[in-house]
Amino acid sequence: RDAWDARTMPDAGKELIEPPAERAINVKSDAEDVQPERRCRCRRAMAVLCAFGLGAAAGGLAFGLGFGLRSADGAAATPALVVPPGCKITAHAQADLYPGYLHAECAALSNDTIRWKRNCFMPGLNVWAPEGNIFVRLPDPARCPLAESDEWTISGWRKRFVSLAPGAAFTLPTGDTSDVPMYKLLSGTVLNVDTNGVQHDDGTWESFTVTVPNSVKSIKIDRGVEQIMAGSDGAAFVYYVAPRAKLNTVLVEGDMLDTSSVVHEIAGPYVELLQWRMFGSYGCCMQYRGLPWWNLAGFFVQDHTEQRVAYVQYWTLEEGVDTGDYHDHSDTVGNGTFGELHVHMYHGSGVDGMQSMLPATVYTNSKPRPPAVPAGGPYVVNGSSTGWINWQGANESVQLGIAIPPGHVHGPLWLLHFDGR
Description:
Organism: Prymnesium polylepis
Distance between the termini: 27 Å
Keywords: Membrane, Transmembrane, Transmembrane helix
Protein name: Aldos-2-ulose dehydratase/isomerase (AUDH) Cupin domain-containing protein
Radius of gyration: 21 Å
InterPro entries: AUDH_Cupin
Pfam family, one: AUDH_Cupin
Largest sheet: 9 strands, antiparallel
């Protein structure tokens, strides 16, 4: 799945509110952080791939991004598209752009967790992977109406990043009919790609970075669609192609240990930085040591001013693994991740997805946590793997399971206060 971190700001003058992109270092953000009142967690499933992080903002396999929303102004006419030479979305090793720490005193701190909390790294990076990321930089849309990146393959899905100036269009490549084209919008809006959004008086459909809360939508592109056109704010998105046979693949226990598995089909620029790691092997997260739960980080997407547009990473875990209690990301510093959106890539049980709490509800069958179960800490499953436990049965709110089929993304699972915070 792809996961997107999200932030937003109140704007009473617009019918829809889009969280703006996270600001990179030295770029001040005028947006307020949204503090989620309700939280979400990955549901237990075998081999779910996740992705998260829309900054301007994925068990199974997934990734994440950060993003923002805006009101629709209607369709724009397609301009005569002239793309100057050199218009390309570039990729860079993090160490080449931002070597070292942000502050000299960070070198004396004991570990990356403390450094992360002291804002020693680029705002918006994860505590578990604050270094070794791939930075994807979008060109100025005023100069480059259309730009594309090189292509990566992540667990069998081919992907490239695309940016569009307002009204510009990306013509879908002609491919094998067995391929399934898909897209995930990172910022801005697109016109007449699907009917999940707002329909204007002239019949134009405008789609946004998020869908209806506590629901899912397909990211697959219908074969009748020939182009992706940006709305009046432009657009940045990830364009995916997945062979249909692979999209129908069911991941099973042991796939992570099988180097011939689709999970390990990884290629593209700086591929040496794209490595699956057990989540419990990260210095921040040793409490999960031994759990069959893996992470692949990550792509940090910036615009031409170094403003953060999105962070993308991938997840997979085996059936029966609980990734922890409901949580948010309000403890992150600066422009850290606020929330997550997940795109599901492969399934393991058919009911993989997310679980959400419904606000202002009471679950009458809620049970207190048994004394033998710690409130949070190491535990042993069947005498083997060390993991982490949070007693879900003690939750006082009604819980909603949201199954996410492959090639679908869920909507927001967080709650905003009435004052816009």
